[in-house]
Amino acid sequence: MTTPRGARGAAPRHDDRRRSFPQVAPREAPDGRFAATWWGNAWVDALEDTALDPARLARGKAYAGRGHVDAITVTQGRVVAYVHGSRPRPYRTEIRMRTLGDDGWERFLEEATARPDHIAALLDKDVPHALEAVTGLLPAPGDLVPDCSCPDDGYPCKHAAALCYQAARLLDEDPFVLFLMRGRGEQELLAELTRRNAALSAAEATAAPPPMPTVPARAVIAATERPAPPLPPPLPLPDRPGRPAVFPPDPDAPDPLALDLLASEAAVRAHTFLVTGHDPVAALTPWQDAVRLAAAHPGSGLTASTRALYRDLAYALDRTPTDLARAVAAWRQGGAAGLAVLEEPWDPPAGPFDRARPALLAADFPAFRPWRNRLSTESLQLRLGRDGLWYGYESDAGREDWWPRGAPDQDPVGALTDLLGH
Questions:
Q1: How far is it, in rounded angstroms, from Cα 137 to Cα 178?
Q2: Per residue in 15-26, pLDDT tens?
Q3: Under 8 Å between Cβ of 383 and 393
Q4: Which of 50, 264, 275, 359 has its CA 20 to 30 A from that of 345?
Q5: What are phi and psi of 158, to 5 degrees?
C-alpha cells in the first residue's frame, strides 16, 4: 500500500534492513542542481552519465519536482516506489545496484575507525570524501539499473529517472540510506564502528609512549658557572606517517579530497625523508608525479572521486583523462620505467631485441613486426625497455590504441604469456 500523495512530514518507518520514506519534498540546491550534497549529486551523475535520452531525464526531473513519486522503500541493493504518469494507475518503478562485498565493507570500516573525525562526520550525517575514495560507495556510470512497469523501453524511462532524482534527496538527508543500498543497515554499521573504535582506543592506551626526557628551565638558567646539561636525545622516529588534518567541505575552499590526498602525500614523503634521508619524489617531473599520485589513489575502478582526480590532474598538465589513465596503467605495470616505455620509443642495440622474434616463433606465437623497440601483431605488442625488461601491450585489432597489460619480464615469451593470461 502506497502512502497517499501529499502525505509529507511523517517520520519514516525504520527497520535496519528495510526503510520506507514518505514523499520527499524536492528542493534545488543554490547552484541549481537537484541534490544539495556532493554524494547526492554523485548519485544523480551516475544516472545522467549513462542515460540514452536527455529528454526523458528532463521529464523525470519534472515528475520528481511535481511530486509524482510516492513513498520510497529502500532495501539492500534496491530502491522501489510507485510513480504516477499519464495513466490513472501508477507504475511500479525500481532502481537496482550491486551491494558491497565483505572486502569492500572491511576497507570502509578500517578507514572509518582509523580516524575519529570520520566517525564524527558519519554521526553528523556527512560522508568524508576519503571514505568514498577507499571503498567506491557511490555508484559509477552503469551501476544503477532502472526497471519500470510502464511500456516505455527508454534507459531510463521518465518514471525511473524521477525515482532516481527523488532518491538523491533521501541521500542528502541521511547518507546511511546509501549504506543500506550497498548492503549494510544503520544500526549494524554503528554497532561495528563502536566496537572497533573501542578496541582501537584500548590498544592505543596500552601502547602509550614513555614520557619524554626533559631539562628543567631553572637548571639551564642557573648554569652560568658550570657547563649546561646535555640536551635530551632526539625524539624517536614514528613507525608510520601521521594522519592528515581534517578538511571539512566548504564551497569557498579547495576540494577536500584533493587537500586530504596532498596532505597524506606530504606526510609520507616527510616520514620517508626522516627515515632514509632521501626524497624519492624530488627527481620526478610534474607529469611523472601526477601519474604517480593517480596510480597511488585508493579505490576500485573509476569511481566518482577517481574520475574527478584524473580530470583535475590531467587538466593541470594539459593532458586528457584518457592520457592519464593510460599512463597510470603503465606506472602500475613498471613504475617510472614503465611510463618511459609507454612514452619513449627508442632504438635498442643488437642482441636481446634481435633474438626475441625467433624465440617467439619457436614458442608457436604468431609473427611479430619490428619497429624500433617494439614488436607488434594486430592486437598484441611487446616493448623492450631501457631496463632490459619486456612490457606487454594490447589493442583492439586494427586500432593503434595500445594499453599496458601484464607484468614485465626479462624473457619476451614470459611477458607475452603473462599478457595473454590477463
A1: 8
A2: 678 888 888 766
A3: yes
A4: 359
A5: -65, -30
